[in-house]
Specification:
Blueprint: H1 8-11, H2 15-26, H3 32-45, H4 49-61, H5 66-71, H6 83-96, H7 107-114, H8 119-141
Helix pairs in contact: 2-8, 3-4, 3-6, 3-8, 6-7, 6-8
Amino acid sequence: MEPRIKNPAETLDATQPIGQLYGAVYSGGVPKATLDLVHLRASQINACGPCVDSGARGARKSGESEERLFAVAAWRETSYFTDAERAALALAEAATRLADRSDPVPDAVWDEAAAHYDEKGLASLVLMIGLTNFFNRLNVTTKQIAGAWG
C-alpha cells in the first residue's frame, strides 16, 4: 500500500494551525477520554484506517481500556459508557452522517448532549467531530496508510 500523495496538511504546512484548533478542543472541559471516543467513532463510520489506528493507540496510551475501545462501534449495546459519553457518541454519529436523514442532527440528540455539557463543552465536541471528519476525508481521499505515523 502506498499513499497517493503525502498528507495534504503536511504538504501545505497546515499542521501548526490545525494543532491550535486541537488546543482549543482540549480547552473546552470535555474529558480527553470522551474526545478520544468521539474521534474513534467518527473515524470508524468514515472507514479512516489511519485515524482509527492512531485514535485507538492514543486512547490506549492515555489509559483507555481495551473493552471500551473494542465496544465503541456498538456503544449502544454495552454498559461500558456513561450517559455523558453516550450523548457525545450519539452527537458524533449524527454530525458525521449528515446526508443520512432529512434532520441530520435531531433536537433530541442535541438536547441530550446539552444535558451533559455546557456551551464550551458542546463547542469542544462539535469542533472535535468536525476536525475528525476533516482528517478522515484527507486520509481516505489520499489513501494514507494506517500505522505509518508511528
